[in-house]
Every structure is written in C-alpha cells, then in structure tokens.
Design a protein that fits this description.
The complex is a heterodimer of chains A (439) and B (199). Chain A has 439 residues and is mainly β. Chain A is built from four helices and 31 strands. Chain B has 199 residues and is α+β, with helices and mostly antiparallel strands. Chain B contains five helices and four strands. The radius of gyration of chain B is 44 Å and the shape is rod-shaped. The chains are: A mainly beta (439), B alpha+beta (199).
C-alpha cells in the first residue's frame, strides 16, 4: 500500500511536443451562465497497445474506460457513441498530422482523446493527448510513467488536465467525500472518492458521529461525536491515530475549517449560550466570533477566509447570516421562507448553497453571498439537504430521500444532471466534499 | 486362715448393709403425706400451670400486637417508598413538550416543571440530566442547536425555582433519538421534548 502511494507520487509527466496549450479562456466552448446545459461532445476511442501484451491491453482499456467515466461525471462533456466512429481506434494515427479531424467533426465530436500504453517490466508508460477537432489542434499532451495497475490515478490526472484545458478550473479529480452512514447500526463516518468509489469506514465509535469537515490539506477531519457521551468535536487525523479534542463543557457542534489555515470555527455553548468561536487545529480557542443570544450554528467560510456564513435564530426563525471578520459586521442573507439552514460557501466564492424548508420538505437553493434572489436547484424530489461543493465549485453533492431512504446524490452547480452517487446499506447523510488533495 | 479372713470381710460389708436397708424402709413410711396435703399440692400446681398459660397467652398477644405494629410501620414505609418510586417515575417519565422550532415553555410545561422542582427539593441528593430533543423535520445541525436551547430553557426555569445549577446538566440529542418513529404531527409532537434522566 505504502509502496503504491510512493509510486503514485513518482509520476513522471512530460509535455509532448508543441508549445504549452493555451488556457481555457481562449477556447470558447463553455457557456458561462450554465456550462452544463451545452455539453461538449468528446470522442474517446480505445487507446492503443501491443496486441501481444495483455497487460498493456488491459491498462489501455481500463484507462480509457475511467477517463470516459470521469469526464462524463464532471457534467461538462457528453461521450460520442463508439458505434458511430468513422476511424478504427486500433489503427488510426494518434498524433500529429496523421489524425483525420474531419472524421471526428463529422460525427459531432468537438474534442478527441487518443492514447497508447507501453509496458516495460513493472512500469507502464501512458501517452495521452487531447485534441480540438474543430481547430485541429493539440490542447494537452501528457506522458505518465507508473505501475501497470495505477490506471485509476493516471485517468484522474489526465481527466483533470482535460477539464482544466476546457474550463480553466482545476476540477475535483483529486478529491474525496466524507459522509455519515448508519448501515452498521450506528451513525459512523465513511470516506469515498469523488465518484463514490473506494468506500472506507472512518470511525468505529458505535455511537452517533456527525458533520465531518475536511481540513484544507485534507489530512484532518473534524466532526461531532457522542462517543464520549456528550456531543464533542473530535479533530482526527485521516490516517494516523492522532486526534485532538476541545476542552470545554456543553455542546460542541458543526466544525468548519478556515481555507488554507490550520484553524476552524465551531459553535460551543460552554458560556451558557451558543456562540461561534475560532479555534486552532488542536482545539484551543483563539477568539469568540459571534455575540448574540440564541442559536448560532453551522459556519461555512468564504474561500478567502474573510467572511463566513452561518445559521442564526436571532430573527425568530433559522436564517442565514454573513459575518465579516475585519469589521465584525453581520448581515442577513436569506429573507424568503422560515427555515433556511445548512449554508455551504462555494470554493469559487460566488454562491452560497443552502437548504430551505417549505411544508416540511427541504430543497436546495443557491444565493449570491452579497445578497439577491435565491435560485432553486431541487424540486421536491423527496427532501433534499446538506449541499456540499466540489473543490472547483462545479458540482454539488447532497443527501435526498427521493428513493425512500436518505442517500447521497450529485448535481451540477445549476441543478442539472442529478444522480445517485453510491449504493450501500443503511441511510447516508451529511456529505462533505474535500479539497483537491493529491494522494 | 484365709477362709476366715474372707468370712470376716464379707460380714464387715454385708451386716451394715442389711442394717442400712432396714432403717431406710422405716424412714419412707414416716414421710408419706396425708390425703389433704396431696390435694393442696395438686391445686397449687394447677394454679401455677394456669398462671403460666395466662402469662404465655399474654405474651403471645403482646407479640402479635408488636408484629401488627411492625407490619403497619412496614406497610406505611412501603407506601411511602411506593409513593417515592411513583414520584421518581413521574419525574423521569413525564417529558416537557415544545412547539415546532420553539424552546419556550408554555403553561403546561411550566406546571410540570414546578412539580419537577418539588421533586428535586424532596430529593436533595438527586442530580438530573436534562436531554433536549427535536422532531425529525428540519436539519440535524440546527436541531442539535435547538435541542440544546430546549434543555437550557428547562434548566434555567428550574434554577429560577431554586434548584441548584450544580445539580443539573444538559445534553442535546437533536433529532437523533426520537421516541416515536411515526411521520405525523402526533409523533413529531412527542419527539419535541426535554426528558429527564438521573445522574
């Protein structure tokens, strides 16, 4: 396992030929208002490999399958139907002037990904390219050297390059999702990859554990647990058996890490009233942030760490407010409805997602953090709640009871492409998306 | 010679023995009581026996009275104990209920809390954990905060009635521990509660 990780870190990457591809801005494929309404058709023919080398053939197939799945998952792309291909993937030219771009534009593909895999003993060399078929131009060329079975990492890496070349965003292919599941009989935290793969159990408290929050470096998860009878925040290392607690009585609820810093905010009630405090990553209080009688809970930070949104009952029912660190000023953000909670500030900074309850049913909305009209993303397909953003702000994960039991779903930031992320026993709630962290 | 010695010896023992026997018989005859004496003695013995029985009965009655008294005390103690148990069960089983998204105490809640305060005053050694709960509607982080407010408002009310702060702790379970799994207002109303547990 450790050896495996080291190998992953030791990826060799080269730019193949030509100048560095110019960035997304110059390729006007994406509709700025909603890039997901007009998906870019991309052709991913089977990558080439030596017919007599089954290891290479397998790596070529697996890598191609994963890149296709990841690109489709991102919401930006639609895959061209392989049955419509005019070119034979096994014999076509995969680089240079040999590519017949017209054969790809003819079937509607605006992007083409080609690749080949060569195996040399323990290592495999993956050569992957992204072409703009309309401008007949190479956008990305990469060569990865790694183990023969690390196609998942290779696919993740190259998919990230493709999304970056087309959208200018770093994507989310190096991110994971933490969530709560009660399948074991008690509410425990679980982790999975961004696409629902590699599910692993994170806590074994046989208690109630809730509200996971990832540190900016992805190495720590802070969460609330009843493992010690009272609801306390535990700051737990992702791999090592190291953890920190907050040495204060009373309720300790819903931690939120400050972006880029080893600090977090959380509501504590030891003073007799719930207030949001700023704490070190080791659980020591730095200072008190809010100062109003009543419920103050669920902080979520702006990406620059200068503001945070939170839920307060100061107006009589739960509404979302924004606190400005420098001025200490608090402004109310939501005015529609009588029950707005679960704010989640987009890592892009431009929207705050939240859930709003009407007639006992929750739906997800987004709103400009400076105020404005909320936009509704889910439409009463069961109860939809607990929105959390992908690190590039393109997708939102949430929990929904649309199929009966509560499960984790995905949608784009505009509410399109709603689909279930994973299937497992019990009910899943409280998803939280990690930052992009290489692993 | 030897034979004579033996005869002398035998005589020495036998003759006094015979003499003694004769004298004994004579004495017996002389101590025999008259008929009157016998009647008096028997009467006395009968009286004594009667006395003894009376005394025994008296003692038995006393014992019974004592037992009855003891039983009465025990019954009373049991009744008191039962009453105490019932009071404790009422203290533990009767929850304070809240409206949706509210942590304020209505008249019914306040009346119930006055009874709870009395129980706490009658049981100065008892420490109480006040649990705040919510119904499943709403979101779980907010409900965790709301459950805390509910438990705290109960604690504050009891403190105002003179119950020491040190005897009460609060804990919020939010929506995590419903008593009724139903999805109707009736079930939700049961779940929006502050419950009492002994420390």
């Amino acid at each position: 396992m450790i050896r495996h990780q080291i190998l992953c870190v030791l990826f060799f990457m080269f730019i193949i030929g030509g100048p560095l591809p110019t960035f997304a801005a110059s390729y006007n494929f994406i509709d700025i208002s909603n890039p997901f309404l007009r998906k870019t058709p991309v052709a991913v023919p089977l990558f080439q490999a030596d017919d007599d080398d089954p290891t290479a053939k397998k790596a070529a197939l697996e890598t191609k399958e994963r890149i296709s799945a990841f690109l489709e998952f991102s919401g930006y792309f639609t895959l061209s139907d392989p049955d419509a291909f005019l070119e034979d993937p096994s014999t076509m030219a995969i680089s240079g002037s040999g590519i017949h771009f017209r054969n790809w534009t003819a079937i509607g593909s605006e992007l083409l990904i080609t690749g080949n895999v060569v195996v040399l003993g323990e290592t495999a060399e993956y050569e992957l390219r992204l072409f703009d078929t309309i401008k007949q131009k190479l956008l990305v060329g990469k060569r990865y050297r790694s183990t023969t079975d690390s196609y998942r990492q290779v696919a993740r890496r190259f998919s990230g390059e493709v999304v970056f070349a087309v959208t200018g965003s770093r994507g989310f292919f190096d991110s994971r999702i933490a969530f709560v599941s009660n399948g074991s009989g008690s509410k425990e935290l679980y982790l999975c990859d961004f696409d629902g793969g590699n599910i692993s159990r994170f806590t074994h408290h046989n208690s109630i554990s809730l509200f996971p929050a990832w540190s900016s470096d992805g190495r720590w998860i802070a969460y609330t647990t009843y493992a010690d009878t009272h609801p306390r925040i535990r700051i737990q290392h992702i791999r090592e058996k190291r953890f920190a607690l907050i040495d204060k009585p009373g309720l300790q609820a819903v931690p939120a890490w400050v972006p880029g810093r080893f600090e977090l905010a959380a509501s504590l009630s030891f003073s007799g009233d719930q207030e949001i405090y700023l704490l070190t990553g080791n659980g020591k209080i730095i200072k008190r942030l809010t100062n109003t009688v009543g419920i103050d809970v669920e902080p979520t930070w702006s990406p620059d760490g200068k503001r945070f949104a939170f839920v307060s009952k100061r107006s009589g029912n739960p509404q979302i407010y924004v606190y400005d660190i420098d001025s200490g000023r608090v402004q109310r953000l939501t005015f529609e409805g009588r029950y707005n909670t679960q704010p989640s500030w987009s890592p892009k900074g431009d929207r705050v997602a939240f859930s709003s309850m009407e007639n006992g049913v929750l739906d997800i909305f987004t709103i400009d953090p400076d105020g404005g009209e909320p936009v509704q993303l889910t439409q009463k397909q069961g109860s939809n709640e607990a929105p959390t953003w992908a690190p590039d702000g393109s997708l939102i994960a949430f929990s929904s009871t649309r199929e009966g039991k509560s499960r984790i779903y995905m949608m784009t930031a505009y509410g399109t492409d709603q689909r279930r992320l994973l299937s497992m026993s019990g009910e899943q709630t409280n998803p939280k998306w990690s930052p992009n962290v290489l692993n | 010679m030897m034979k004579r010695k033996w005869i002398v010896l035998v005589m020495l023992f036998v003759v006094p023995a015979m003499l003694f026997t004769v004298s004994c018989a004579k004495k017996q005859v002389s101590t025999e009581p008259s008929v009157d004496e016998i009647a008096v003695a028997e009467e006395a013995a009968r009286q004594a026996e009667l006395e003894k029985q009376k005394e025994l009965e008296r003692q038995q009655q006393l014992e019974e009275e004592r037992l009855a008294a003891e039983r009465a005390v025990q019954l009373q103690a049991e009744a008191v104990e039962r009453e105490k148990m019932m009071a404790m069960n009422r203290f533990l089983n009767e929850s304070v209920y809240f409206d949706f998204d509210e942590a304020t105490l209505d008249d019914m809640a306040q009346e119930l809390l006055r009874q709870k305060a009395m129980w706490l005053q009658d049981n100065p050694d008892a420490g109480a954990i006040i649990e705040g709960h919510c119904d499943e509607r709403g979101t779980n982080a907010y409900n965790l905060a709301l459950g805390e407010r509910r438990a705290e408002s109960v604690k504050t009310f009891l403190m105002d009635l003179g119950v020491s702060d040190a005897r009460m702790t609060t804990i919020s379970y939010g929506e995590e521990k419903p008593v009724d799994m139903g999805q109707y207002e009736e079930s939700w109303a049961k779940n929006r509660r502050a419950a009492f547990v002994l420390e």
